[in-house]
């Protein structure tokens, strides 16, 4: 699963590095075009499926237990908030200091506050992206965490039934509410159904459902094949995200999580470390790309060279941020505010 998280983050990074280099190509007149066999954003869909999986896996035996919802939310806030606030503040400072170099739509106090609070809020251009634009995924994550915490107040079957029913109802009504009810329209995007797919996958895992190597490979090929098919046929423009992104994501995640474990060797451990740093990779890569693009042009690097160097440097920077910033902060806050008691995978449960 950790390797899958690294892969999901890399898919997003490929898209954003390619977009930045294409922007450089447009302004400099030098040719470059990113290869698009599929929507690289399917990495986000994989993240959401994994998020649903991890949350249920961690808490499946904690429903209706006193203090369980509060502890769940506390751990989620400790894991998600610090690095996101650091990166959001860096983006705010970048706009204030060098706004002409950063693509933005101006600053609005309400929008800034909403960005820090994980609340969807319209920008000056009417879009719902927060100050750190890729934080839109975290707005969905936090919504899922809050709803899941309420479900933990109840017996498991009742809590899950209400959450599944509520999410389905929200997805059905969201397209039909007035535009000024933007929070409902935002949170009712069908992408929230991917959290539910992850919960179902966790149920299968806890029920000892497993796949052989042949089935795992077949599902991986099928998942990416569907992602290519949906993108190449333009299905993303007319079919809900739960289908075009969610189906490939759940197929790929099922293969990775229910299939045989990765071999215990140095390469696998490095990829797993990349999974640990996937949150840092997701949040920091826009800054790395922007700096590299400016420096690469001054150094006379080819656009293809900037692209591949960008992929490498985003991973290196993310590993450093994870090891030197994210992990120490998380451990300190857990020691300070969290109650003792081991929870499997708890340190690794985070998503964009």
UniProtKB/TrEMBL annotation:
Give the stretches traversing the membrane: 39-59, 80-102, 131-153, 160-178, 184-206, 213-232, 238-259, 266-285, 305-325
Q: Does the keyword Kinase apply?
A: no
What's the superkingdom here? Bacteria
PANTHER family referenced in this protein's UniProt entry, alphabetically: ACETYLTRANSFERASE (PTHR23028), BLR2367 PROTEIN (PTHR23028:SF131)
Report the Pfam families cross-referenced here. Answer: Acyl_transf_3
Provide this UniProt record's keywords sorted from A to Z: Membrane, Transmembrane, Transmembrane helix
**Name of the molecule in the record:** Acyltransferase 3 domain-containing protein
Name all Acyltransferase domain ranges: 3-321
């Amino acid at each position: 699963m950790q390797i899958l998280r690294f892969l999901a983050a890399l898919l997003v990074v490929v898209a954003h590095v390619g977009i930045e280099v294409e922007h450089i190509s447009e302004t400099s007149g030098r040719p470059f075009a990113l290869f698009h066999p599929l929507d690289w954003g399917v990495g986000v869909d994989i993240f959401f499926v994994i998020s649903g999986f991890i949350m249920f896996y961690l808490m499946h035996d904690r429903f209706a237990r006193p203090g369980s919802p509060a502890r769940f939310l506390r751990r989620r806030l400790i894991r998600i908030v610090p690095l996101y606030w650091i990166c959001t503040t860096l983006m705010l400072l970048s706009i204030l200091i060098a706004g002409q170099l950063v693509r933005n739509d101006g600053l609005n106090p309400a929008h800034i506050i909403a960005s820090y609070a994980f609340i969807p809020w319209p920008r000056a251009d009417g879009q719902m992206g927060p100050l750190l634009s890729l934080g839109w995924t975290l707005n969905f994550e936090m919504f899922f965490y809050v709803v899941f915490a309420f479900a933990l107040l109840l017996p498991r079957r009742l809590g899950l039934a209400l959450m599944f029913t509520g999410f389905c109802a929200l997805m059905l009504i969201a397209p039909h509410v007035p535009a000024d009810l933007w929070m409902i329209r935002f949170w009712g995007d069908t992408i929230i159904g991917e959290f539910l797919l992850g919960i179902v996958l966790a149920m299968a895992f806890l029920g000892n459902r497993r796949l052989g190597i042949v089935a795992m490979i077949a599902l991986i090929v099928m998942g990416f094949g569907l992602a290519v098919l949906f993108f190449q046929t333009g299905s993303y423009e007319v079919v809900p995200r739960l289908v075009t992104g969610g189906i490939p994501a759940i197929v790929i995640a099922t293969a990775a999580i229910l299939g045989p474990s990765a071999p215990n060797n140095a390469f696998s451990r490095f990829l797993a470390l990349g999974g640990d740093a996937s949150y840092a990779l997701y949040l920091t890569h826009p800054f790395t790309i922007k700096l590299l693009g400016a420096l690469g042009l001054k150094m006379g690097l080819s656009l293809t060279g900037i692209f591949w160097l960008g992929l490498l440097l985003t991973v290196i920077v993310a590993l450093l941020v994870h090891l030197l910033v994210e992990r120490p902060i998380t451990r300190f806050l857990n020691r300070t505010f969290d109650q003792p008691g081991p929870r499997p995978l708890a340190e690794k449960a985070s998503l964009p």
